Amino acid sequence: MTATNDGVSLDELCIDTIRTLSMDAVQKANSGHPGTPMALAPVAYTLFTRAMRHNPADPQWPDRDRFVLSAGHASMLLYASLYLTGYDLSLEDIKNFRQLHSKTPGHPEYGEVPGVEVTTGPLGQGISHAVGFALAERMLAERFNRDQHEVVNHFTYVIASEGDMEEGISGEASSLAGHLGLGKLIVFFDRNHISIEGDTVIAFTEDTPLRYAAYGWDVQDIGEDVSIARLEEAIATAQGVTDRPSLIMMRTHIAFGAPTKQDTAAAHGSPLGEEEIRAAKRFYKFPSEEPFFVPPQALEHGRRTLERGAAQQHEWRERFERYRADFPDSAAEFERVVARTRPAGWADDLPSYPASDKGEATRKSSERVIQWAAQKLPMLVGGSADLAPSTLTLIDQAGSVDLHSYTGRNLHFGIREHAMGAVVNGLNLHYLRAYGATFLTFSDYMKGSIRLAALMRLPSIFVFTHDSIGLGEDGPTHQPIEQLAHLRATPNLSVIRPADANETALAWRHAIDSTDHPVALILSRQSMPTLDPARIPADAVERGAYVLADKRSAEGGPDVILIATGSELQIAVAAAEVLEQEGIAARVVSMPCEDHFAAQAAEYRDQVLPPAIRARVSVEAAATFGWHRWVGDRGETVGMEGFGASAPAAELYAHFGITAEAVAAAARRSLERARSN
Questions:
Q1: Is 644 helix (H, G, I), strand (E, B) or coil?
Q2: Ranges in the chain annotated CATH 3.40.50.920
Q3: The pairing of beta strand 494-496 with beta strand 519-522
Q4: Those residues with Cβ within 8 angstroms of residue 73's Cβ, 6 or more apart along the chain or in another chain
Q5: pLDDT digits (tens, 9 = 90+) for 48-94
């Protein structure tokens, strides 16, 4: 390897450039984490210039290797590596680290800059999403590869910190990865013994490699030797282990080369200071102490990755064209899957169900719609957290994904809701259309992953059944109360609570058609009547709310509006009948998706909820938080003000006052207030 005038090799100069850019960017921003990028620069450099198959000129090449910086606080490690190897990231972007509208936010964000495969930062999420990547790679390989034709064959590389390993989600996901034998997943575990509060010995003394060996991973410990040669050797060994994921443990030194801050917590989350940076640059024998100086020979050397990547992609493209010649239909399907498009007219025969007083639970309606959708969309896959018999989310006769067997479509996440959310996101990032299911109350375990899906604008589908006190005897531990309000407060997440089989079909159609937001489907355990499909607009879910029934007073309009979702819609309908007998005209509004209704033009919202009708009542067997937006200062909310109880569903609804009579009484009170003001 050619050396510089100071005897530093070009490889070392590139590694030191990653370090110095990281130090300088954090210093200029007066915010960030410089120490970890300084320690891990050799690992990132080896991956991006030696080990990984990727093309910076085409970051969306389908069969590229994926890189996930689970230690997202070390974002400058990734940004400097992307810049050095030729991704669409400029030196000016590096200088604008952590600034408004920059392409280099404080933690890596999917969609902000090419080369960032997933949003990371919340510790444990990156490695857990990467399990979804690795699983998707194996599932796609099983579906599309043929003898002598490999069009899917790539690795997922991860850099994870001690903080990642301390978070419970990483343990759940890593356990699942070991169970499934995901041999294309290679994780570098950086043990630098430093956290914000000091040496990790104060809280973290476990033998992590031993734990991962117990999970079924192949484990290597390369100690403090993070030379390129040793890293390449470890990577080659991991690549050769095809039946297990791999963990490569390293003992690094945070802020390597900083004379007073190396191996200290002071280098973790704060700028080093200008004098410390100059001293570190002198330690590296870096050719300049000028901030953001990039040696031309280092940039030229790093950018050779463009040549290598273009050749690798060209070789894959030639293989794919041979594949297309022999398997034209499979090649066309592969391209459609990669483009994330659905077959034209896929939902033209959306299921429709006749009116029925008996009806069924919306979880059962969902099961029927899933079977219909699965026939239309071969890439629809999903599973539950050990609750498939209750959530009713199995795809019939589609087989299961299991150890080294990836042809099935049913995923068994085990009792791992936290990991399930992240893995579902990873599958959706990696071309599949994936859903995960559990009880609504356990969405609490998944909130971090759901939030990331919304932040990344992923079309992940989260199926939550047993949506209210209507689940009955399991009692308050399992009866969701605050979860709907919590989910609805999440930006860019569509929370859909259908009221019958027909609204459920529309909800699934919307979820599958979604391209820029996740969807939470909120489904009941108990049965509810099936509405007349003629009364439900085709765009009911997209609009968010519609008028289901409308009575007219002598003055020509309704006296009061009853707004309900899910299983409580039938209660609102019954309450309207009670009021009609008293000469009070009620409009019943079904609001399957409050988020969508809020996004409608004011004209449509006023058509459904006329401002002149101030007497309003909301009905939902959950916390009433948020409903005052729609019922106003003269309205009433009928719902839950505390936790549930253990009893049959009908008794609970009566006990907590969520009945037609209670709704009618609330309507009278609201009407009286509206008329007196």
A1: coil
A2: 543-676
A3: parallel
A4: 33, 36, 107, 121, 161, 269
A5: 999 999 999 999 999 999 999 999 999 999 999 999 999 999 999 99
pLDDT in tens, 587-616: 999 999 999 999 999 999 999 999 999 999
| Residues designated catalytic | 417
Residue 161 falls in which region: left (phi positive, over 0), alpha (psi -120 to 50) or beta: beta
The secondary element (H helix, E strand) that includes residue 282 is: helix 274-284
**DSSP β-ladder status, 246-250 and 185-190:** parallel
Give the Cα separation of 559 and 497 in Å (integer): 26
Query: Cβ contacts of residue 281 below 8 Å, gap of 6+?
Result: 20, 288, 289
- For the segment(s) 10-308, the CATH number from 2.10.109.10, 3.40.50.970, 3.90.226.10, 3.40.190.10 is 3.40.50.970
- Tell me the pTM: 0.96
CATH of the domain spanning 543-676: 3.40.50.920
* Strand order from edge to edge, sheet including 66-69: 66-69, 156-161, 185-190, 246-250, 218-221
The token duo for 304 is: 């050779």
Residue 336 CA from chain centroid, whole number? 22
What distances in angstroms separate CA 310 from CA 58, 155, 323, one per listed residue?
8, 18, 20
- The pLDDT tens digits of the residues spanning 311-360 come to 999 999 999 999 999 999 999 999 999 999 999 999 999 999 999 999 99
Give the pLDDT band (50/70/90) at residue 533.
Answer: very high
